[in-house]
Design brief:
By secondary structure, the protein is mostly beta strands. It has strands spanning 2-3, 14-19, 23-28, 31-39, 41-46, 49-54, 58-61, 67-70, 77-84. The two termini are 23 Å apart.
Length: 88
């Protein structure tokens, strides 16, 4: 497991990414994360839970929580948003 360091563009406390996710290793970061599946489905792992996230479904995760996922489909795509935490 690795810590993911988020670089926010233009000094804004939010980053939005459009990704084709084949395999995203288990990681954690100091930011809230929101995943929205645009097409296909995505197998998600959050801490010890594991489930499928299908097209047009959304999942949010608080900061400092282990998460990762992937798909066997070549056509899956998702948007991922991370928001900087103001908690110290």
């Amino acid at each position: 497991m690795r810590k993911e360091y988020i670089k926010y563009p233009f000094d804004l406390p939010i980053k939005i990414s459009y990704l084709n996710i084949k395999n995203y290793p288990i990681h954690w970061h100091n930011s809230m994360e929101i995943i929205y599946v645009l097409k296909g489905s995505l197998h998600i792992k959050i801490d010890t839970d594991s489930f499928m996230l299908n097209e047009k479904e959304v999942e949010s995760m608080i900061e400092n929580i282990q998460n990762g996922g992937g798909t066997t489909e070549d056509t899956s795509s998702a948007t991922e948003s991370t928001a900087e935490s103001t908690a110290q």
